């Protein structure tokens, strides 16, 4: 087996993603993807490549559409890495919510995504010791507070959100493997619909409703803001599709809790990412620019809080 | 005092260079994305320079009204606003804005400050659609 080509792809902010063309003499070339750890964690919740490999393997066995991982996790130049199938298709959210070419995909994608979510939530998280104890809403809020404090700046809007999340934290009624980044932008989609779910680096054990709220965060509507769930369906319809797919009943109130949580989480991650640049850990205009994105989640948080009441 | 181009004119020149000369010949997707981010970042800086110090002054006054503190002459407007934000954040975390009239004042004032930030960072964002 030979490496014929190598191209760096846009990946997560805590890992490198490479498209590798491999082949034998006289054989055709095929593409595989190499994912490798990068210095600097996305947040205190980020998984390593070794852990991501185990999670994707389990997801594949549970018939969740994910790229097949292979060769086992390995070390490349001192960093954890693994190979997986290259799944061709569109991931760019802006195109998926808008382009006519994906009109048919949009019709089936929400139902397919909910089916996949119900299946992945059925994976027993206790088989992965590295996930640790299931995290309650209060655990997650405390972790966000620590990440916000590490930024060293005052963010009154996020503080208001954190107080509200503490006061309204739901009890952990069911424990599941939570994907942690289940949203438009992390789905590979073809004109016929969902092909694969990517980016398992924020997975943890906790409340499955967190994934539904995250799916509705405005940042993942890619400009199609009227349709709260991923820019493709209203919230009510998402919950109905979740129920039809065999999932438990989720109230709009519970969904709103996790949507507010999601705005806080993404907002504080953008600040942490800018911090990596500001400390000089990873100098990058992309990370620097994220610092100015946080205000969008502050605005959204304040409006969601106003709607929710004290 | 410097000769022209002014700071905003220099930024406009670099932004034009990135968008008109670098981007069209850039095939690498990651570099294309970063070039767009860089150009957008310069647009943010342009808007911020055009706004001058008024934004920090306004925020400082809102924070003073909210916190009941006297105007300090230490530091510039931006560092005073920063100190005020930290103090407001601390008081919110202690629960002082959980309910009541001060909560409403904090919510309103904070929204005004966030909107002022967004007029610099992403002016299109401050339109909330009717949700369905």
Question: How would the blueprint of this fold be written?
Answer:
The complex is a heterodimer of chains A (310) and B (132).
Chain A: E1 2-9, E2 15-23, E3 30-37, H1 49-61, E4 69-76, E5 79-85, H2 93-98, H3 103-121, H4 137-151, H5 156-167, E6 176-178, E7 187-190, E8 193-197, E9 204-206, H6 209-216, H7 235-244, H8 252-278, H9 285-290, H10 294-308
Antiparallel strand pairs in A: 1-2, 2-3, 3-5, 4-5, 6-9, 7-8
Helix pairs in contact in A: 3-7, 4-5, 4-8, 5-8, 5-10, 6-8, 8-10
Chain B: H1 7-22, H2 29-51, H3 54-67, H4 77-93, H5 101-121
Helix pairs in contact in B: 1-2, 3-4, 3-5
Short description:
With 310 residues, chain A is an alpha+beta fold.
Describe this protein's structure.
- The complex is a heterodimer of chains A (310) and B (132).
- Chain A is of the alpha+beta class.
- In chain A, 42% of the residues lie in helices and 18% in strands.
- In chain A, the strands form 3 sheets. Chain A has a 5-stranded antiparallel sheet.
- In chain A, helix 4 runs parallel beside helix 8, helix 5 packs antiparallel against helix 8 and helix 5 packs across helix 10.
- Chain A starts with a strand and ends with a helix.
- With 132 residues, chain B is mainly α.
- Chain B folds into 2 domains: 45 residues; 70 residues, no CATH class.
- Helices cover 69% and strands 0% of the residues of chain B.
- In chain B, helix 1 runs antiparallel to helix 2 and helix 3 runs parallel beside helix 4.
- The mean pLDDT of chain B is 91.
- The chains are: A alpha+beta (310), B mainly alpha (132).
- Chains A and B meet through helix 5, helix 9 and helix 10 of A and helix 2, helix 4 and helix 5 of B.
């Amino acid at each position: 087996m030979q490496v014929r080509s190598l191209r760096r792809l846009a990946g997560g902010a805590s890992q490198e993603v490479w498209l590798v063309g491999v082949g034998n003499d006289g054989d055709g070339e095929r593409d595989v993807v190499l994912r490798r750890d990068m210095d600097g964690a996305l947040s205190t919740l980020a998984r390593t490549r070794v852990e991501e490999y185990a999670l994707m393997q389990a997801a594949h066995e549970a018939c969740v559409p994910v790229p097949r991982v292979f060769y086992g996790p390995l070390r490349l130049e001192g960093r954890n890495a693994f190979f997986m199938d290259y799944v061709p298709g569109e991931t760019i959210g802006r195109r998926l919510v808008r382009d006519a070419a994906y009109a048919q995909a949009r019709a089936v994608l929400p139902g397919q995504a909910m089916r996949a979510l119900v299946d992945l939530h059925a994976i027993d998280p206790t088989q992965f010791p590295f996930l640790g104890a299931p995290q309650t809403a209060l655990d997650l809020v405390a972790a966000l507070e620590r990440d916000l404090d590490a930024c060293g700046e005052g963010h009154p809007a996020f503080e208001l959100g954190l107080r509200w999340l503490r006061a309204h934290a739901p009890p952990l009624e069911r424990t599941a493997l939570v994907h942690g980044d289940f949203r438009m932008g992390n789905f590979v989609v073809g004109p016929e619909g969902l092909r694969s779910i990517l980016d398992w680096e924020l997975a943890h054990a906790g409340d499955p409703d967190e994934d539904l709220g995250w799916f509705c965060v405005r940042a993942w509507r890619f400009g199609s803001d009227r349709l709260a769930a991923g820019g493709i369906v209203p919230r009510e319809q998402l919950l109905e599709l979740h129920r039809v797919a065999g999932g438990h009943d989720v109230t709009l109130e519970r969904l709103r809790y996790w949507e507010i949580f999601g705005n806080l989480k993404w907002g504080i991650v953008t600040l942490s990412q800018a911090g990596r640049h500001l400390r000089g850990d990873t100098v990058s205009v992309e990370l620097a620019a994220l610092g100015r994105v946080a205000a969008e989640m502050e605005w959204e948080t304040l409006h969601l809080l106003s709607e929710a009441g004290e | 005092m410097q000769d022209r181009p002014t700071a905003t004119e220099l930024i406009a020149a670099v932004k034009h260079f990135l968008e008109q000369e670098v981007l069209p010949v850039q095939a690498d997707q990651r570099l294309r994305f970063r070039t767009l981010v860089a150009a957008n970042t310069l647009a943010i800086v342009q808007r911020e320079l055009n706004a001058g110090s008024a934004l920090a002054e306004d925020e400082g006054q809102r924070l003073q009204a909210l916190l009941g503190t006297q105007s300090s002459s230490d530091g510039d407007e931006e560092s005073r606003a920063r100190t005020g934000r930290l103090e407001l954040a601390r008081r919110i975390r202690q629960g002082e804005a959980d309910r009541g009239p001060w909560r409403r004042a904090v919510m309103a004032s904070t929204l005004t400050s966030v909107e002022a930030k967004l007029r610099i960072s992403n002016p299109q964002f401050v339109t909330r659609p009717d949700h369905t």
